[in-house]
Amino acid sequence: MGDYPTLTKISEGIYQLVVRYPFGMYEMNSFLFQGVNGFTIVDTGSEAKESIDIWEKTLASGITVDKLVLTHAHPDHIGLAKWFQEQKHVPVYISSLGYKEILRKRKNEDTNWMRRFLKTHGGPEIPKNMENPEAAAYEFEPDGLFEKEQTIILGDKTYEPIWTPGHSSDHFCFYNKNQQVMITGDHVLAGLSPIIAIWSENDENPIKDNFDSLERIKAFSTKIALPGHGELIFSLNNRIDEIISGHKHRLQQILISIENDEKTSWQICQELYGSLSPTKFFAPFLATITRLIYLEKSGEVFSELKDDKLYFRSMVN
Length: 317
What we know:
Elements: E1 8-11, E2 14-20, E3 27-35, E4 38-42, H1 49-60, E5 65-69, H2 75-78, H3 81-88, E6 92-95, H4 96-106, H5 110-120, E7 144-146, E8 152-154, E9 157-163, E10 172-176, E11 181-185, H6 206-218, E12 224-227, H7 236-257, H8 265-273, H9 282-297, E13 301-306, E14 309-314
Parallel strand pairs: 4-5, 5-6, 6-7, 11-12
Antiparallel strand pairs: 1-2, 2-3, 3-4, 8-9, 9-10, 10-11, 13-14
């Protein structure tokens, strides 16, 4: 079937391409699944010249692409969907939940809501250069949608889409029973814990959703997991247990922080993560807020609005 110098062979018919870009996570794993009609690509990387150059070199090695399938509608995973459609005439598929997220993102209503949200939690202003920097990623129309209960063909193999909300409300993993392969996207990563955050006013309790989703995929016997960033995972359930343990450690730190004193989310975030630069505060701050919301919904903390800011305190006292 040919030699592909930019790809790393994972197993029979499955290849990995590391797509790099000069911002954010700086690289993402695309996975390519070989079939008689060509390769199915899962996720693209961000829209950047560096990423396009990597794909051009890969495609020039003789690869035929059958279709593109997307795990979730974050710009580092869908950023080149439009490019594949328009420049390479590749059909693009995403879940119906992902398409709803794309339509919502196009309205660009989240920025003003996020500004108010962070202000209520005592946080700093969002820098202008962080406001919807990759809006172009959402400017494509998918060629087809898949649903929770359907199967999907990647290459020549049948995969089960597994809805795994947490990192994003529209996130899907894909599982092949015969090969015991799980594509985890950003749901489970090897080297770091994926950010679980309130991204919009539609998100209610992402930490609980994430815990439920992690337990859901533990039920699938998996030999190898293919994550959206970083190294491959060969002990998926062990890694899931580590991620859950990490979240519980942070939750306990928060409870200790507000055991005897009420604090805003921003005050707690600074205690947990130290001094944060204007470009590095966003993810840990959102993660702290999301954990506080989980604890409040679990009945372990309560909040009170004072002078337009929310203050949290442990229910222990």
